[in-house]
Amino acid sequence: MLRTHTCGVLNLSHLHEKVKLSGWIQRSRDLGGMTFIDLRDRYGITQLVFNMEVNAELCEKARKMGREWVIQIEGMVTERSSKNKNIPSGDIEIVVDVINVLNKAKTPPFTIEDHTDGGEELRMKYRYLDLRRNPVKNNLIFRHKLSIEIRNYLNDIDFLEIETPFLIKSTPEGARDFIVPSRMNPGQFYALPQSPQTFKQLLMVSGMDRYFQIVRCFRDEDLRADRQPEFTQIDCEMAFVDQKEILDTFEGLIKHLFKKVKNIEFDSIPQMTYADAMRLYGNDKPDLRFGMTFVDVTNIVKGKDFKIFDDAEAILGINAKNCASYTRKQIDALTDFVKRPQVGASGMVYIRYNEDGTLKSSVDKFYTEEDLKNIAMAMEANPGDLMLLLSGKLEKTQKALSELRLEMGNQLELRNPSEFAPLWVIDFPLLEWDEETHRFYAKHHPFTAPKPEDVELMSSNPAAVRANAYDLVINGSEIGGGSIRIFEKEMQNQNFKLLGFSAEEAQAQFGFLLNAFEYGAPPHAGIAFGFDRLCAVMSGVESIRDFIAFPKNNNGRDVMIDAPSEVADNQLDELFIKLNEIPQ
Amino acid sequence: MLRTHTCGVLNLSHLHEKVKLSGWIQRSRDLGGMTFIDLRDRYGITQLVFNMEVNAELCEKARKMGREWVIQIEGMVTERSSKNKNIPSGDIEIVVDVINVLNKAKTPPFTIEDHTDGGEELRMKYRYLDLRRNPVKNNLIFRHKLSIEIRNYLNDIDFLEIETPFLIKSTPEGARDFIVPSRMNPGQFYALPQSPQTFKQLLMVSGMDRYFQIVRCFRDEDLRADRQPEFTQIDCEMAFVDQKEILDTFEGLIKHLFKKVKNIEFDSIPQMTYADAMRLYGNDKPDLRFGMTFVDVTNIVKGKDFKIFDDAEAILGINAKNCASYTRKQIDALTDFVKRPQVGASGMVYIRYNEDGTLKSSVDKFYTEEDLKNIAMAMEANPGDLMLLLSGKLEKTQKALSELRLEMGNQLELRNPSEFAPLWVIDFPLLEWDEETHRFYAKHHPFTAPKPEDVELMSSNPAAVRANAYDLVINGSEIGGGSIRIFEKEMQNQNFKLLGFSAEEAQAQFGFLLNAFEYGAPPHAGIAFGFDRLCAVMSGVESIRDFIAFPKNNNGRDVMIDAPSEVADNQLDELFIKLNEIPQ
Is it the case that residue A435 has pLDDT exceeding 90? Predict the structure, then answer.
């Protein structure tokens, strides 16, 4: 037996017990006649003590061992003279009798400490060392706990976890697939699933009723900073439910998770239509931890010969409470911020409502004090406030002002990482027009049902059709999304047609689903949550990477194992493929 | 709301309640003035009743609806006059007021009954209909329950479920990889994992201590009847444990599962060395539900001028108790059985120990009654028994006699599907010599540690080295296997050398693991269970296919979605690959 206890459990209740511990040397200190070693494992740290006077040979041996060596010791639990109140085992130490080196260690390339000196690249290469650090280790433990709670909650309400295949069929709709050449079916390829969407719908047709799966999904997209080619989804589907029932069910899940894992309780999660979210926050995933909602001042500010406003489709503003004291320099910085290409505004107008009741703006030339007061009234601004206005095309202005609002939220520290503001955004548009390809795309996916009252619009004004689709948003991050599904072949065909599929294309790609709809498909609906993202958001962290044990970098590489890599020619031959010339 | 209850819950306690139900029409019967419909969902069946006299219009409507239509009804729970004691809802029926057709259904291509008229191919194509049948549905529910119990058991003893990547690196060792071309890294490929072996070992190096994962794995092998290209593994690893501790831990898991899911309790699971398993059963996964162990009669039967035995390396026999009454025809059939190419024996010798104490054999020409009595004594045969002997090369004879033993077990109904005989097989050989490629292969995998007492043999007699490797066998099926791992770089290099890897090859393929071993790797060990197989064996079923929601056929095809399939040329272009000429 290599240990009787872990390094996290011993305390005064174990006094005078003989114990065996195994673990890593976190640090050691020589204090003249005494040597102290902090022994670490997943569960904590226990202090070992060696005394030159009692056992010089053992103490010398201990002094020669370096950081991250793996050792096993035997010794007796004793009370510490100077206690460490920061750790559970801080009241005791082990007076060591026997020490065995289980494995030596080279000095690690970065320090195994909460705040390490290692850079991102180095930590990725030695990920197995990075995982020894508390912050990363605790993320994975958090993720594990969350997965256990998710499964038990859903199991308790009759959901079945059913595994769907990973080797499926490539479809041109949606993001780019990873494909897998088939050796047994020469010239043919599997695709890795972007989600188990069609399979979970088939499970509803099969009567499985309440399905879930925590499942890996794959998308071969150019990676932004916080995307991974493989990611994990909490994938769910229910039959015989309406929208209220499915939202209630998963609101229950989210509340359960926050209660169990973070001890935070929510009232019911508010709902907001997509239209309102865009109108008030310029964003379909608004951060509700703070207000600063948009005010449309288009009708108030036009007609004063300020050409920029007169020419604009929309003039929208936010009221930054108590920011009248912003300096010229701060305001200039905000102007620079909105002019960044990622934000895309051409300029910003400010109106400062001074404490003394006077008003000062960047457009004083065009607007009288009276005019400014009217704007202030519309924006519910009071003395001491600062109004920020952007103008232009509606959508572009919404997007830019949303960025500005979030930036102001950051500056004013209104986005508290330990506060959580969940929100259902509902009634998304069914379709999205793409100027480039000149066609409609499904806003959610092609299986989403239109709102019954909007079905007529599908022929007359498709862009106006709203879907029974919903997103769960927390603190400005989209955590999950889903929809009521189409479950009738004719409606599904009508939708495919709007998306530019010919009947033949629809049949070739989704024939199995369309056929299934003819054999007794029940009404059904579903939702999927991004599990990596959920872990990060619940931890108040922006990046998902440190919630993934072995993530890939922005080139889709695992730099630790050095994948992807070249393969042997005979592997390619067996698969009936060869390489094209590779651009240098 | 589409339903107030499911079709499995209503009983006499709900009498006179108004309810809404939704489900599929299992069957309907017209009995003159009355129409009965069995409404089915995942949870059960509830009888609906319609009365021509009470509501002719509704009754007519009901009569027009076909099998598998999806309907919603409202009605009142009433007591049945003729009760059905076979189903929980058999005491009541629903007198229906309102009926809504939610979706019509074409007549399914096979009956949705426990014993269907549909053939394998048809059921695979319409898998979503096959999943409606109780036997298949119940398998998936069983699988779900098992997965929940596995996770909770392991979570309770501090195991963490940690997800490892699916897009990893191809290694030539072991089975054939599925590979995935990388668009962002032209000319390079990911591989899908055959198991998370190296990642779980890295997690041990990272200090994660107790890891598990229920995870999909992939092998591009020619598929035998009961293999799938993707399969699910319960993958586990522990640090700081010896063999006893890891076997105890997972023995606990298996006992927990049988207790929780099947209400079967085991004593501790017996252990048998690989050497004994081969000697007594000719098989490293013996079915212990019955005895009929091998007896080596080589020394007894030689030297009587029976050339076949005199020339044989080994002569092994089994004693089929109480089978002396086997007819000549039955014995001939057994001889034909062992001569089948899959079994591979060249003939069979029988010795019948008649009830009257006389002996009759197929080799009476060479053996006296006295000789035969000596053989009988060695084989612990009594009057009424039948001895069956095979001879030849030792390994071939063991294999053939093992097949014969299992066949006799089947014929004598000694392999009861509701009885379970688990067994640990331990002390496997480290290496396996391959005559064809003239090299050693790892019997388990290249990371398995030799038994400490056999390390010296690694240079002198590698074939004799035993490994600290173990399999869990139930009823003749290998359910899981694992080993104590090598955790020191030098030992790992020595093992790679035995396997014919040059230092460069080892570094190129497994450098990340060898490097990790230099940074403080703890002693560790692991095991992996085949989850599909575990489900099947615990259900007393041979085939894994019906425990997988959407399995593939023997050509690796999903005939329902028709995958794999051809992909667009531009997809291949983006991946810098093209097709070779496909053989017709």
Answer: no
Question: Nearest-CA residue of chain B relative to A558?
Answer: B168
Helix (H) or strand (E) holding B126: none
Note the pTM of the prediction, 2 decimals.
0.95
Give the C-alpha separation, B557 to B563, whole Å: 6
pLDDT at A582: 79
Q: Tokens for B385, please give them.
A: 């028994």
Contact: B163, A582; criterion CB under 8 Å = no
Please answer yes or no on whether B518 and A68 come within 8 Å at the CB atom: no
Domain B137-272+421-548 - what CATH class? Answer: alpha beta
CATH architecture of B290-411: 2-Layer Sandwich (3.30)
A471-480, B203-212, B434-443, B544-553: least confident range? B434-443
Please tell me the least confidently modeled range out of A352-361, B155-164, B292-301, B500-509. B500-509
Are the beta carbons of B306 and B312 closer than 8 angstroms?
no
Instruction: Decide if B519 and A232 are in contact by the 8 Å CB cutoff.
Output: no
Q: pLDDT by residue (tens digit) across B148-200?
A: 999 999 999 999 999 999 999 998 777 899 999 999 999 999 999 999 999 99
Q: Give yes or no for a cis peptide into A583 (omega within 30° of 0).
A: no
Angle at B63 between CA B61 and CA B65, to 5 degrees: 80
Tokens of A249: 């069910």
Band (pLDDT 50/70/90 cuts) for residue A95 is: very high
Look at residue B230 and give its three-state secondary structure. Answer: strand
Q: What ipTM goes with this model?
A: 0.95
The CATH number assigned to the domain with range A12-103 reads 2.40.50.140
Interface test with A, best of B9, B107, B154, B190 (most A CBs within 10 A): B190
Extents of the domains making up chain B: 12-103, 137-272+421-548, 290-411
Residue in chain A closest to B110 (alpha carbons) equals: A519
Residue B222, judged by CB atoms within 10 A of its CB (0-12, 13-18, 19+), counts as: exposed
Report pLDDT for A50.
96
Q: Assign 3-class secondary structure to B442-502.
A: ECCCCCECECHHHCCHHHHCHHHCEECEEEEEECCEEEEEEEEECCCHHHHHHHHHHCCCC
The residue of chain A nearest to residue B192, with distances taken between CA atoms, is A180
**Residue A21 tokens, joined:** 């511990």
Task: Grade residue A583 by pLDDT with cuts at 50, 70 and 90.
Answer: confident
Question: What six digits make up the tokens of A373?
Answer: 């007061």
Per-residue pLDDT at A581: 83
Q: Which residue spans within B338-417 are E strands per DSSP?
A: 349-353, 359-361, 386-392
CB contact under 8 A, A103 and B132: no
Residue A387 in contact with residue A351, Cβ under 8 Å? yes
**DSSP at B261:** I
**Residue B542 pLDDT class (50, 70, 90 cuts):** confident
- SS3 state at A421: coil
| Cβ distance of A199 and B550 shorter than 8 Å | yes
- Spell out the SS3 assignment of A364-380: CCCCCHHHHHHHHHHCC
CA dist B568 and A191 (Å) reads: 12
Q: Residue B409 half-sphere exposure, CB side, CA atoms within 13 Å?
A: 21
